[in-house]
Structures are given as structure tokens and as C-alpha cells.
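User: Can you recover a sequence for this backbone? Please restate the input before giving your answer.

Assistant: Of course. Working from this structure:
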């Protein structure tokens, strides 16, 4: 049985069985991980309030047959930043890109610092995140028509689109910047 402790940003969660949930984390030391939270859907769960999306937390994970989250403490809720109207759209864009492009269990300190800085400053600099992945919008051209500058990115196939071609593509697949 292995035990891991790390800072993490909560990327999301989903139900698992009747009372459990699976949480998606981007950790400082271990990269992106999914862990089971036993009793995480119960009303009186001690862990559930800490696992709000975008929270910066310290987690203790135990690996026996699978990864289980056993303890969590909230380090920062970004309460001041969340009060701004631009925080949620920007944060969701960044989280969606990370969930689509980051493989599990691959630590990336550069991405960790960019993510936490973006949440603290709530600037939603998706261009910087894409640059970390090697997709620099400043040097990209539209995959449909070849024009620059680009205005949107599709994570599914890692393609860029100009504004005009972006309007012709399904909006739920694109991340605009």
C-alpha cells in the first residue's frame, strides 16, 4: 500500500456507485490523477466540501488496488477571484483544455504554476496554457483556410480555427481566446 501527499487543483468530479464519487485532480507532484472518494456523495461527507471545482487543496491518496482519496484540506478557494464575472468562463476554458490534453500521472511543474497563477489572477490566459503544450496561437494558421490570426482551438484534434471558420464548427468543441 502506497501513500501520496500533494497539493492539487480540483478539475472536476462525477458520481460513482451510490455514495461514492470519482474526483479528477491536477497535482503538483504527480500530474493529473483520478481518485475514488468513498462516501463523497453523502450529505454529511467530511471530504465533499473541500472538493469543489477549482479549489486548491492538499490531498492524501492511498493506492492499494486503485487510487483512493483519504484526506483533503482546502488551501485556497479563490473566493475573491470567484466574485468576478470573468473568473468562471476563463477557469472552465483552462480546465477543459487540461482535461483534454494532459495524460494521467505525468507531472508538469511548469503547467502547475501556470494553472495556479491563472486561478489566482483570474486572467484566463488560455494562450499561455496552449504554449506550454506546444500549441502557440501566435504562430498558428487556421486548419480550414490557412489564414492567420487564429481565434479558437479544438482540443479533440489539436487544430486551430480563424474566427470565420470557427463559426462553421460546433461551438461546444471549440475554446475561443
Amino acid at each position: 500500500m502506497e501513500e501520496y501527499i500533494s497539493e492539487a487543483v480540483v478539475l472536476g468530479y462525477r458520481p460513482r456507485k451510490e455514495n461514492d464519487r470519482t474526483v479528477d485532480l491536477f497535482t503538483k507532484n504527480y500530474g493529473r490523477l483520478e481518485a475514488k472518494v468513498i462516501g463523497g456523495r453523502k450529505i454529511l461527507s467530511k471530504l465533499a466540501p473541500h472538493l469543489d471545482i477549482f479549489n486548491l487543496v492538499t490531498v492524501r491518496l492511498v493506492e492499494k488496488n486503485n487510487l483512493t482519496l483519504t484526506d483533503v484540506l482546502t488551501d485556497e478557494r479563490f473566493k475573491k477571484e470567484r466574485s468576478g464575472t470573468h473568473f468562471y468562463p476563463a477557469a472552465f476554458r483552462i480546465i477543459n483544455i487540461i482535461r483534454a490534453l494532459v495524460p494521467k500521472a505525468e507531472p508538469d511543474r511548469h503547467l502547475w504554476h501556470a494553472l495556479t497563477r491563472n486561478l489566482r489572477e483570474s486572467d484566463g490566459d488560455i494562450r499561455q496554457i496552449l504554449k506550454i503544450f506546444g500549441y502557440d496561437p501566435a504562430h498558428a494558421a487556421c486548419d480550414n483556410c490557412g489564414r492567420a490570426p487564429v481565434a479558437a482551438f479544438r482540443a479533440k484534434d489539436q487544430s486551430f480555427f480563424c474566427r470565420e471558420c470557427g463559426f462553421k464548427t460546433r461551438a461546444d468543441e471549440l475554446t475561443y481566446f
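That completes the design. The longest strand covers residues 2-16.
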